[in-house]
Design goal:
- About 40% of the residues are buried.
- The chain is an alpha+beta fold.
- Helix content is about 20%, strand content about 30%.
- The chain is globular.
- The chain binds fe (ii) ion.
């Protein structure tokens, strides 16, 4: 097989000396179906040095796809169960791809295990979400996985399970209101990946793909928002050792179109949030993730699918009670109880303060991460609605990839310790003695820190 590329145009030829062969590229197509055949590409004019570069790029980008299948649109990790012994591996790929499983092994060992995937067709997107649940993993251990049985030639990915005990510090990032502005979203992603956290928690409004004037948008608008989010996440959320950083989510108002009853009765179509993130029970958007013997993380729903009170509050009470053994207990949810943007007297803020806050205080929760308002704010410790050194810290409020707003100040609101108009996330470090929380801006600078937290 021979491909010959000539000079660009007759006019060009007339101005130039006779063309000569400057570059020849030969490739043994050992993996191509026509095994043993050769591809020869010849560039014949001096003028076309740029074309040579272009062709090289084509070879690098296209040929691997012909031989091995194209890379997925996105590959990302999450958890629904024990982060020390499980991992959910997910990828989005074009419908034309036929991957049917993932293979994984403990780093340094030689036996690949094959796990068949579940597939969910993304209607109208010409794409499929595929998912495998890896179980019985070893804690605090590096794993390698790939998405093709042609192991030698396919891309390898890495992840690490969480430790069961605090033999080492555990670090994670909390933020929210992530992909609104593309540039701001990616800028913060870069900062967060550089911090190399064990995992990231997003507290809602993840891709702004629902309830954002979406009825006026093109039919595939929701999919395109998620596609951009997942592509960026997949590309950027890799630490310097090549480890993919798992993502855990709580739901926000821009993540769903309907309440639990509407979704269960099929009166509303579930948003893609429910496609891209698994839940143990359908549309049950509040849950607890338990990390070893050191951290209970409560991911709550501030009235987007489930009401704040009633069933969710009853569940929260029993979950907190059963988690008394954990030295650190933290909640992450979307709408704030103690916000710095003027919604202190909103119905939902009052409901959180009257239903959840007393439970937080009673069962020793140290900190609640709040979002939604696109400001930075850190509260004083609060108990019974008053400042109390034994109280709960409320840290907010959702400024990952949005334009930050001007917050209320400590002079204006009694419970605010510090506020700022700044893009920010929190870096949480839990060690054997205490827990430190730093606020990081999208330049990667620490601009605030919470008082150290101790086990309760
Ligand atoms: Fe929101």
């Amino acid at each position: 097989m021979q491909l010959r590329i000539g000079s660009a145009s007759p006019a060009l030829k007339s101005r130039r000396p006779k063309a000569k062969i400057l570059w020849t590229f030969e490739l043994s197509a050992v993996y191509y179906p026509h095994r043993g055949s050769k591809i020869r590409i010849m560039v014949q004019t001096q003028q076309e040095m740029k074309l040579k570069g272009f062709l090289l790029a084509v070879l690098v980008l296209i040929l691997p796809n012909i031989f091995f299948g194209s890379e997925p649109i996105a590959v990302y990790l999450t958890w629904v169960d024990d982060p020390a012994s499980t991992m959910v591996v997910q990828w989005v790929e074009p419908e034309s791809e036929k991957r049917s499983s993932a293979l994984y092994l403990k780093q340094g060992e030689g036996i690949w295990l094959n796990v068949p995937c579940q597939a969910t067709v993304l209607h109208g997107a010409n794409a499929v979400l595929k998912r495998v649940f890896l179980q019985k993993l070893h804690p605090d251990t590096d794993y390698v996985f790939c998405l093709s049985s042609d192991i030698e030639h396919t891309k390898k990915y890495r992840f690490k399970t969480m430790p069961k005990q605090l033999f080492r510090s555990v670090r994670f990032v909390v933020g929210g209101d992530a992909y609104y502005h593309y540039d701001l979203f990616r800028k913060m992603n870069g900062v967060v990946a550089h911090l190399s956290p064990d995992f990231v928690v997003l507290g809602g409004d993840i891709a702004y793909a629902a309830r954002h004037g979406s009825s006026l948008k093109q039919a595939d608008w929701e999919w395109r928002r998620w596609k951009t989010f997942l592509k960026s996440w997949s590309e950027q959320m890799i630490d310097e050792n090549g480890r993919l950083i798992p993502l855990v989510v709580a739901i926000g108002n821009h993540d769903t179109n309907g309440s639990y009853r509407m979704l269960m009765n099929e009166k509303k179509k579930p948003s893609l949030f429910f496609t891209f993130f698994p839940f143990n029970e359908s549309f049950t958007t509040y849950r607890e993730l338990m990390f070893g013997d050191y951290l209970a993380l409560f991911l709550l729903d501030t009235g987007h699918v489930h009401t704040i009170d009633q069933q969710q509050t009853a569940w929260l009470k029993s979950a907190l009670k059963e988690s008394a053994r954990f030295p650190y207990k933290m909640a992450i949810y979307h709408r704030p109880a103690y916000g710095a943007y003027g919604n202190y007297n909103s119905r939902k803020a009052m409901l959180i303060r009257t239903t959840w806050s007393p439970l937080f205080e009673r069962y020793g929760l140290q900190v609640a991460f709040e979002h939604h308002n696109h400001v930075y704010s850190r509260s004083k410790p609060i108990k019974g609605g008053k400042i109390d050194a034994q109280g709960v810290l409320y840290l907010g409020e959702g400024a990952w990839g949005v334009s930050p707003r001007k917050p209320l100040t400590p002079k204006e609101v009694f419970y605010i310790e510090k506020s700022a108009q700044i893009n920010s996330v929190y870096l949480v470090t839990i060690g054997q003695k205490d827990c430190h929380i730093f606020a990081i801006d999208n330049q990667g600078a620490i601009f605030d820190k919470a008082p150290p937290l101790f086990s309760r």
